[in-house]
Write the structure tokens for this entry.
Amino acid sequence: MAIDRRAAHPRVMRQKVRIVRFSGMSLTEGVEEHTIEGVQVNIYCPAKTVADCFKYRNKIGLDVALEALRDVLHNRRCSIDELWKYAKICRVTKTIRPYMEAIV
């Protein structure tokens, strides 16, 4: 779950949730509103999610980030330009570039 860096830590009921703190454009860019069971939920777009996977690759594993990259490009859920835009926002362009070149 992504929250503002100044926000209070949410009280989580039963599920184990990892909280990450974003600020500025990292928090606000790429947010899409979806309705799930009648509730409005903010979810990041696929390109932003892949950029975040590379940003937190040491916590979730590089294999997860690479699989996410392969999946969005193979299923055409986002364009390379869109992915590059969010990589710049998340400051992972140097990290993601070799993998994008190898896959594309």
